[in-house]
Amino acid sequence: MKNKREYNYFEAFVNLSKFSMDSAELLCKTLCDFNTEALPAKIEEMHVIEHSADIAKHDMLNRLLKEFLPPIEREDIISLSQKIDDVTDSVEDVLIGIDIFNVKTIRPEILKFTDIIANCCKSMDVALCEFQNFKRSKTLQSKIIEINRLEEEADALYVNEVRSLYKNSNDPVELMVWTEILRRLEKCADACEDVANDIESIVMKNS
Questions:
Q1: Is the pTM value of this prediction over 0.85?
Q2: What is the CB neighbour count within 10 angstroms for residue 44?
Q3: What are the structural domain ranges in the chain?
Q4: Of 189, 11, 199, which is closest to residue 87 (Cα–Cα)?
Q5: Which of 21, 55, 122, 193 could form a disulfide with 151, with the two C-beta atoms 3.0–4.6 Å apart?
Q6: Cα–Cα distance list, 119 to 127, 143, 199 (Å)
Q7: 154 near 116, Cβ under 8 Å?
Q8: Sign (positive or negative) of CA dihedral 69, 127, 203, 90
Q9: DSSP conformation class of 72
Q10: 3-class SS at 105?
Q11: CATH second-level architecture of 9-205?
Protein backbone atom coordinates (compact mmCIF):
# COMPACT_ATOMS: atom_id res chain seq x y z
CA MET A 1 0.00 0.00 0.00
CA LYS A 2 1.33 3.41 -0.94
CA ASN A 3 2.28 5.64 1.97
CA LYS A 4 -0.16 8.55 1.97
CA ARG A 5 2.61 10.84 3.19
CA GLU A 6 4.91 9.93 0.33
CA TYR A 7 6.05 13.01 -1.53
CA ASN A 8 4.94 13.14 -5.16
CA TYR A 9 7.58 14.90 -7.26
CA PHE A 10 5.42 14.86 -10.37
CA GLU A 11 2.65 16.71 -8.53
CA ALA A 12 5.28 19.11 -7.23
CA PHE A 13 6.38 19.87 -10.81
CA VAL A 14 2.76 20.66 -11.69
CA ASN A 15 2.48 22.87 -8.62
CA LEU A 16 5.52 24.83 -9.79
CA SER A 17 4.00 25.23 -13.24
CA LYS A 18 0.89 26.82 -11.70
CA PHE A 19 3.06 29.70 -10.52
CA SER A 20 4.31 30.15 -14.08
CA MET A 21 0.74 30.22 -15.38
CA ASP A 22 -0.26 32.72 -12.69
CA SER A 23 2.66 34.98 -13.56
CA ALA A 24 1.87 34.86 -17.29
CA GLU A 25 -1.79 35.60 -16.64
CA LEU A 26 -0.85 38.57 -14.45
CA LEU A 27 1.52 39.87 -17.12
CA CYS A 28 -1.23 39.64 -19.77
CA LYS A 29 -3.78 41.46 -17.61
CA THR A 30 -1.32 44.14 -16.54
CA LEU A 31 -0.18 44.99 -20.06
CA CYS A 32 -3.61 44.65 -21.65
CA ASP A 33 -5.07 47.20 -19.22
CA PHE A 34 -1.85 49.14 -18.72
CA ASN A 35 -1.78 51.83 -16.06
CA THR A 36 1.54 53.25 -14.87
CA GLU A 37 0.04 54.24 -11.51
CA ALA A 38 -1.04 50.65 -10.87
CA LEU A 39 2.29 49.18 -11.98
CA PRO A 40 4.04 49.16 -8.56
CA ALA A 41 1.21 47.10 -7.07
CA LYS A 42 1.31 44.69 -10.04
CA ILE A 43 5.06 44.28 -9.65
CA GLU A 44 4.59 43.46 -5.96
CA GLU A 45 1.87 40.95 -6.87
CA MET A 46 4.22 39.38 -9.41
CA HIS A 47 7.00 39.21 -6.82
CA VAL A 48 4.71 37.36 -4.41
CA ILE A 49 4.08 34.74 -7.12
CA GLU A 50 7.79 34.44 -7.89
CA HIS A 51 8.72 34.19 -4.20
CA SER A 52 6.07 31.53 -3.59
CA ALA A 53 7.48 29.56 -6.53
CA ASP A 54 10.96 29.77 -5.01
CA ILE A 55 9.67 28.46 -1.68
CA ALA A 56 7.91 25.55 -3.41
CA LYS A 57 11.07 24.70 -5.37
CA HIS A 58 13.23 24.79 -2.23
CA ASP A 59 10.73 22.57 -0.43
CA MET A 60 11.03 20.02 -3.22
CA LEU A 61 14.83 20.10 -3.13
CA ASN A 62 14.91 19.82 0.67
CA ARG A 63 12.75 16.71 0.44
CA LEU A 64 15.02 15.35 -2.25
CA LEU A 65 17.97 15.59 0.17
CA LYS A 66 16.22 13.06 2.42
CA GLU A 67 14.86 10.86 -0.37
CA PHE A 68 16.20 7.32 -0.45
CA LEU A 69 14.96 6.38 -3.91
CA PRO A 70 13.37 9.16 -5.99
CA PRO A 71 11.15 8.15 -8.95
CA ILE A 72 13.62 9.64 -11.45
CA GLU A 73 17.26 10.65 -11.14
CA ARG A 74 18.07 13.38 -8.63
CA GLU A 75 19.86 15.48 -11.25
CA ASP A 76 16.73 15.39 -13.43
CA ILE A 77 14.50 16.51 -10.55
CA ILE A 78 16.88 19.36 -9.76
CA SER A 79 17.17 20.40 -13.40
CA LEU A 80 13.45 20.26 -14.20
CA SER A 81 12.41 22.10 -11.04
CA GLN A 82 14.94 24.85 -11.81
CA LYS A 83 13.82 25.18 -15.41
CA ILE A 84 10.15 25.49 -14.40
CA ASP A 85 11.16 28.14 -11.88
CA ASP A 86 13.13 29.93 -14.63
CA VAL A 87 9.88 30.39 -16.56
CA THR A 88 8.31 32.28 -13.66
CA ASP A 89 11.49 34.34 -13.22
CA SER A 90 11.60 35.25 -16.90
CA VAL A 91 7.97 36.41 -16.88
CA GLU A 92 8.68 38.58 -13.85
CA ASP A 93 11.69 40.05 -15.66
CA VAL A 94 9.39 41.36 -18.41
CA LEU A 95 7.31 43.35 -15.94
CA ILE A 96 10.44 44.61 -14.19
CA GLY A 97 11.75 45.76 -17.57
CA ILE A 98 8.54 47.67 -18.29
CA ASP A 99 9.05 49.46 -14.97
CA ILE A 100 12.78 50.24 -15.10
CA PHE A 101 12.55 51.56 -18.67
CA ASN A 102 9.69 53.83 -17.62
CA VAL A 103 7.34 52.58 -20.35
CA LYS A 104 4.22 54.72 -20.67
CA THR A 105 2.24 52.85 -23.33
CA ILE A 106 2.25 49.25 -24.55
CA ARG A 107 2.79 48.51 -28.23
CA PRO A 108 0.12 46.19 -29.78
CA GLU A 109 2.67 43.54 -30.79
CA ILE A 110 3.68 43.16 -27.14
CA LEU A 111 0.18 41.90 -26.35
CA LYS A 112 0.54 39.29 -29.12
CA PHE A 113 3.72 38.15 -27.41
CA THR A 114 2.15 37.92 -23.96
CA ASP A 115 -0.66 35.78 -25.40
CA ILE A 116 1.91 33.36 -26.81
CA ILE A 117 3.69 33.22 -23.45
CA ALA A 118 0.42 32.53 -21.62
CA ASN A 119 -0.32 29.71 -24.06
CA CYS A 120 3.23 28.36 -23.62
CA CYS A 121 2.75 28.24 -19.86
CA LYS A 122 -0.63 26.53 -20.20
CA SER A 123 0.83 23.95 -22.57
CA MET A 124 3.74 23.41 -20.20
CA ASP A 125 1.30 22.78 -17.36
CA VAL A 126 -0.67 20.26 -19.45
CA ALA A 127 2.56 18.48 -20.37
CA LEU A 128 3.65 18.31 -16.73
CA CYS A 129 0.25 16.95 -15.70
CA GLU A 130 0.69 14.20 -18.28
CA PHE A 131 4.34 13.65 -17.32
CA GLN A 132 3.43 11.59 -14.24
CA ASN A 133 2.08 8.89 -16.57
CA PHE A 134 4.86 9.20 -19.14
CA LYS A 135 5.39 5.44 -19.45
CA ARG A 136 1.78 4.96 -20.58
CA SER A 137 0.92 8.35 -22.02
CA LYS A 138 -0.21 8.56 -25.62
CA THR A 139 -0.41 12.37 -25.63
CA LEU A 140 2.71 13.65 -23.84
CA GLN A 141 4.75 13.86 -27.03
CA SER A 142 2.09 15.97 -28.72
CA LYS A 143 2.10 18.34 -25.73
CA ILE A 144 5.86 18.74 -26.02
CA ILE A 145 5.53 19.41 -29.76
CA GLU A 146 2.93 22.11 -29.02
CA ILE A 147 5.35 23.92 -26.70
CA ASN A 148 8.01 23.73 -29.42
CA ARG A 149 5.53 25.15 -31.94
CA LEU A 150 4.67 28.07 -29.68
CA GLU A 151 8.36 28.78 -29.07
CA GLU A 152 8.92 28.90 -32.83
CA GLU A 153 5.97 31.27 -33.14
CA ALA A 154 7.56 33.48 -30.48
CA ASP A 155 10.90 33.39 -32.31
CA ALA A 156 9.26 34.49 -35.55
CA LEU A 157 7.37 37.30 -33.80
CA TYR A 158 10.58 38.47 -32.12
CA VAL A 159 12.48 38.62 -35.42
CA ASN A 160 9.63 40.36 -37.25
CA GLU A 161 9.02 42.94 -34.55
CA VAL A 162 12.68 43.81 -34.02
CA ARG A 163 13.09 44.19 -37.79
CA SER A 164 9.99 46.40 -37.94
CA LEU A 165 11.20 48.43 -34.99
CA TYR A 166 14.51 49.26 -36.64
CA LYS A 167 12.84 50.03 -39.96
CA ASN A 168 10.37 52.48 -38.45
CA SER A 169 12.29 54.25 -35.70
CA ASN A 170 15.49 56.26 -35.45
CA ASP A 171 15.05 57.04 -31.76
CA PRO A 172 17.94 55.32 -29.94
CA VAL A 173 16.11 55.18 -26.62
CA GLU A 174 12.99 53.69 -28.17
CA LEU A 175 15.09 51.14 -30.03
CA MET A 176 17.00 50.15 -26.90
CA VAL A 177 13.93 49.88 -24.69
CA TRP A 178 11.73 47.82 -27.00
CA THR A 179 14.56 45.62 -28.25
CA GLU A 180 15.27 44.66 -24.64
CA ILE A 181 11.61 44.10 -23.76
CA LEU A 182 11.12 41.95 -26.86
CA ARG A 183 14.25 39.99 -25.90
CA ARG A 184 12.85 39.38 -22.41
CA LEU A 185 9.55 38.21 -23.88
CA GLU A 186 11.30 35.84 -26.26
CA LYS A 187 13.30 34.47 -23.32
CA CYS A 188 10.02 33.43 -21.64
CA ALA A 189 9.13 31.19 -24.56
CA ASP A 190 12.68 29.79 -24.61
CA ALA A 191 12.34 28.94 -20.92
CA CYS A 192 9.14 27.00 -21.60
CA GLU A 193 10.87 25.08 -24.38
CA ASP A 194 13.73 24.27 -21.99
CA VAL A 195 11.16 22.60 -19.71
CA ALA A 196 9.76 20.62 -22.65
CA ASN A 197 13.27 19.52 -23.62
CA ASP A 198 13.97 18.36 -20.07
CA ILE A 199 10.73 16.36 -19.97
CA GLU A 200 11.58 14.73 -23.30
CA SER A 201 15.08 13.88 -22.12
CA ILE A 202 13.82 12.33 -18.88
CA VAL A 203 11.27 10.25 -20.76
CA MET A 204 13.97 8.95 -23.11
CA LYS A 205 16.24 8.02 -20.18
CA ASN A 206 13.48 6.17 -18.36
CA SER A 207 11.83 4.35 -21.25
A1: yes
A2: 9
A3: 9-205
A4: 189
A5: 193
A6: 12, 12, 18
A7: yes
A8: negative
A9: S
A10: coil
A11: Up-down Bundle (1.20)
